[in-house]
Amino acid sequence: MPSLQELIQLHQxxxxxxxxADAAELENYRIRFLGAKGIVKNLSAExxxxxxxxxxxxxxxxxxxxxxxxxxxxxxxNLLQKEADKGPSIDMSLPGTPLPIGTRHPLRMxxxxxxxxxxxIGFSVATGPEIEDDWHNFTSLNMPEHHPARxxxxxxxxxxxxxxVLRTHTSSVQARILETQPLPVRVICPGRVYRNExxxxxxxxxxxxxxxLYVDKNVSFADLKQTLYYFVTEMFGPDxxxxxxxxxxxxxxPSAEMDISCTVCGGSGCNLCKHSGWVEILGCGMVHPNMxxxxxxxxxxxTGFAFGMGVERITQVKFQVNDLRLYSQNDVRFLRQFQxx
Length: 341
Ligand code: PHE
Fold this sequence. Notes:
Layout lengths: L3 H13 L6 H12 L4 H8 L8 H32 L19 H14 L4 E2 L5 E3 H4 L26 E3 L4 H10 L4 E10 L11 E11 L4 H16 L5 E8 L2 E10 L16 E10 L1 H6 L8 E8 H9 L12 H4 L6
Parallel strand pairs: 1-4
Antiparallel strand pairs: 2-3, 4-5, 5-9, 6-7, 7-8, 8-9
The structure holds phenylalanine (PHE).
The site of phenylalanine has 11 residues, from strand 8 and strand 9.
């Protein structure tokens, strides 16, 4: 039978090798060594069998062993407590789970840019409904029923009400502004418009416009030209040239279409400008006196200009997108190409 000293030595080794990983292991250890029927208690009971001349020495060894067992318990208890206080352990160096995020649509980016260019010179944003009545989309814009100009735009009618259409242009917002706002007005109207066209690379049944309206005393065609020239230099750069060609819109007189020098070839001829050196980007003109009268405005006192551009067209000229359908397919491989531009 091993002596008390030998027994102590054996258990001492066990304690030295102890590694309590969790509270349950620590509790096992406490019961095994420090419990009412534990090793320390048992070894103390052995003292009576130690010969009297060795008892003093054995008592010291036993005491040291008891201290060691208790200390070890305290050390592990504190360690586990510290771990518990820290909360669940997180590896801060692990890369996070990537969240798939979308991108801003190129049409929205260009629309934002158009709007902010005009905001810098005092235009404010105005919007209106996409389902319009005949008055705001046509009649008040100097296009009474049976006016041939109505055929310029293939209209979607709303079956529930013969007076309702999906607006064919954002000029309807001009009408709503003249109807409700006191003069002078200076607004830019971005929005979606609808035309009954067969979908192809060059046409779509809906697209986006940005239309401007300025009505005040003494507004002239020179103001219109200068405003649009400012817009073009901001949008396409200071070297861009502009030219105006006479045109026709029922709600403007005189009317014009504006071209800019080709942004791809600079005028020498390419696919974008169809080898003409010029690309058409918008329609414009002086607000027709009939339209002003429709809203109780005296054309002898007030004059104004209006212009309207297609956001898809501006985006196409800026980024050489040659298929309109790409804009509505939501293919992120297409949409991502415009990030940061
Ligand atoms: N509304 C016209 C169109 O959709 C554009 C335009 C707006 C023309 C304002 C002149 C003045 O084609």
